[in-house]
Write a structure and sequence with these properties.
Layout lengths: L1 H9 L5 H12 L9 H14 L9 E8 L14 H12 L3 H8 L3 E8 L6 H4 L3 E2 L17 H18 L5 E7 L4 H12 L15 H18 L6 H8 L2 H15 L4 E3 L2 H13 L7 E3 L6 H10 L15 H19 L3 H4 L5
Parallel strand pairs: 1-2, 1-4, 2-3, 4-5, 5-6
């Protein structure tokens, strides 16, 4: 708990002075007023996050947190739990969607085992950061996902990874892998947004109507059995969360404490961001919403964070793919502050 408490104390809001300096410069660039719209808004945000008008975004990483979920036993997913370990091997070997998009975004992919149920092959295990809490969570339909102590451990694991990567990472994207993980994410979002379970539950891995109804019923049962406290992020994580969800929350908190930007990916990472927000409301200042997922709960989660997504491409893969795609937009915004001349610098007449 000491690491978590120390990190929470370090999190403050955006740097108001840097944000104002960025705003004043952006208003003087050689273009009609605010002509690049939300890219300029993002440039202002980056200045506030980093505390300067020359935000660094060149060194990039996508962290994929992996963990299994006992609730998968209830049949809420299209795929068996074995797929988690198989996909982790695919990430390590460079053949997954996130690998291709991370290469396009000039980001390295870092995989973390937060609690995969099956053993990893030796060659894969050696390439993965191990922060295992256990071999997957318990089934939330019949009791808590984990103990409160394990919830703290999962968040602190994420903070440790953040500190490990921070010296050579300017811009972080967060992603995940874990069969069944949209189910606990829906439970988290329902608890913190006040929306009904049906409103925040989607098709996840592509389930049909019958399995979707089973999923809705399973989430409703999990909330009834566990009764998570909406005013206590640790309680929510412990009762209906996941190890990788806690790890992502820790990553966000760790980078927020270090005043570095974090690109949220889709539904699961945004559910984790809600846990981070519950523990440290000011942590939302470092978050950038990469895209809007087709999962209905994602929009509810983004609304709770007061975030507007940069992209809306119909994505539902996860893994950090949306975050990877948005990295070049973040770079473009930073370049507005550092490369575009003002009217006076360029000796251009203003209107």
């Amino acid at each position: 708990m000491q690491l978590l408490s120390e990190t929470l104390r370090q999190i403050t809001g955006p740097d108001v002075t840097a944000r104002q300096a960025a705003h004043e410069r952006l208003e003087q660039l050689t273009m009609p007023h605010w002509a690049l719209g939300r890219l300029m808004d993002l440039a202002e945000d980056l200045a506030g996050i980093t505390g300067g008008i020359r935000p660094a975004v060149e060194r990039r990483a996508i962290v994929v947190m992996a963990g299994d979920h006992g609730v998968a036993e209830a049949g809420v997913s299209q795929y068996p739990r074995e797929v988690t370990v198989q996909m982790v091997a695919n990430f390590v070997r460079g053949g997954a969607g996130i690998n291709a998009l991370a290469r396009a975004g000039r980001a390295r992919v870092v995989v973390v085992d937060m609690g995969i149920a099956s053993p990893l092959p030796a060659d894969v295990a050696s390439a993965v950061i191990s922060e295992r809490i256990g071999p997957g969570t318990a089934n939330i339909a019949s009791g808590p996902a984990m103990s409160r102590e394990d919830a703290i451990r999962s968040i602190e694991a994420g903070i440790r990874v953040a500190r490990r990567l921070a010296p050579d990472t300017d811009l972080l994207g967060v992603g995940e892998m874990g069969i069944g993980n949209t189910t606990p994410s829906s439970a988290i979002v329902a608890t913190l947004s006040g929306c009904g379970v049906e409103e925040v539950t989607g098709r996840g891995s592509g389930i049909d109507e019958a399995r979707w109804r089973l999923k809705v019923a399973t989430i409703a049962k999990a909330l009834e059995v566990n009764r998570p406290n909406p005013n206590d992020g640790l309680d929510i994580l412990a009762r209906v969360g996941g190890f990788e969800i806690g790890g992502i929350a820790g990553l966000i908190l760790g980078f927020a404490a270090l005043r570095k930007p974090v690109l949220l990916d889709g539904f699961i990472t945004t559910a984790a961001a809600l846990i981070a927000q519950s523990l440290a409301p000011e942590s939302t200042g470092c978050m950038i919403a990469a895209h809007s997922s087709v999962e209905p709960g994602h929009r509810a989660a983004l609304n709770k964070l007061n975030k507007r997504a940069l992209l809306d491409l119909g994505l539902r893969l996860g893994e950090g793919t949306g975050a990877a795609l948005a990295m070049n937009l973040v770079e473009a915004s930073a370049r507005l502050l550092t490369e575009v001349a003002t009217f006076s610098e360029a000796n251009v007449s203003q209107a």
